Amino acid sequence: MANSSRPRVPTAAGTRGSTAGARVEGEAGPAATAGPADPADARGTDRGEERTGAHRTTDDRHRSDHETTGHHHDTDWETAHRTAHRVGRELPPRAVSLTEAIGHTLAEPLTALTDLPAFDTAAMDGWAVSGPGPWGLEPGGAVLAGHDHPAPLADGLAVPIATGARIPPGTTAVLRRERGRTLADRLRGPNPSPGADIRPRGQECRTGAGLLPAGTPVTPAVLGLAAAAGYDRLTVRPRPRVAVLVLGDELLHRGLPTGGRIRDAIGPMIGPWLTGLGAEPVSVRLLGDLPAGSADRAGGPRGDTLVEALLDAAGSADLVLTSGGTGAGPVDRVHPALRALGARLPVDGVAVRPGHPMLLAELPDGVPLVGLPGNPLAAVSAVLTLVAPVLRGLTGRPEPDADTVRARLTEPVSRHPRDVRLVPVRLPAPGWAEPVGWAGPAMLRGIAVADAVAVLPPGPAPAAGRVRLLELPRP
Ligand SMILES: Nc1nc2c(c(=O)[nH]1)N[C@H]1C(S)=C(S)[C@@H](COP(=O)(O)OP(=O)(O)OC[C@H]3O[C@@H](n4cnc5c(N)ncnc54)[C@H](O)[C@@H]3O)O[C@H]1N2
Ligand code: MOO
Question: How much is the ipTM here?
Answer without folding.
Answer: 0.97
